[in-house]
Design a protein that fits this description.
This protein is α+β, with helices and mostly antiparallel strands. The protein contains four helices and five strands. Strand 4 (67-73) and strand 5 form a beta hairpin.
Length: 153
């Protein structure tokens, strides 16, 4: 996307996909929104983020929400990329027929304790389940050294 402030190309993290069987709410894609795992994602490798044009993930003050929250920032000017805007873009892409697998930019390790409990998952993708083999292809396209595991806190 283009940054609202400086117009530079930047990437925002809308959420993460975990193994569907680990999802606390049974989402068929295993989608967990950024806001539910934001703190865990602040430790992502800076070089990895830079390579994907992801700005700093850190607490910023939102005049719209009238509070500080961990947010995406523009890779060029560090402007807050708002949660509402990112979710709106994601919803539009899903409504236009994009598969969540098509929106994946890479894989990262996510500590099991970062996965929210059933009552804490704030939104679902609202799209149909993966096509046969689509999740398996996603795992091949974006391999990772160790699988996600859910650990108790």
């Amino acid at each position: 996307m283009a940054c609202w402030r400086c117009g530079a190309p930047t990437t925002a993290i809308a959420g993460v996909l975990i193994a569907p069987e680990l999802h606390p709410d049974g989402d068929p894609w295993g989608f967990i929104p950024f806001s539910d795992v934001a703190e865990a994602l602040t430790t992502l490798n800076g070089a990895w983020c830079s390579a994907h044009r992801i700005g700093t993930l850190k607490p910023r003050y939102s005049r719209t929400q009238k509070q500080r929250y961990t947010s995406n920032g523009c890779a060029s000017c560090d402007a807050l990329l708002g949660e509402f805007f990112i979710n709106d873009v994601l919803s539009t892409l899903i409504a236009e027929g994009f598969s969540p697998a098509e929106l994946v930019i890479g894989r990262v390790q996510l500590a099991g304790q970062a996965i929210p409990d059933e009552e804490e998952v704030s939104m679902s993708l609202g799209c149909g389940p993966p096509l046969p083999g689509e999740l398996e292809q996603l795992a091949i396209d974006h391999p990772i050294a160790a699988p996600y595991t859910r650990r108790s806190a």
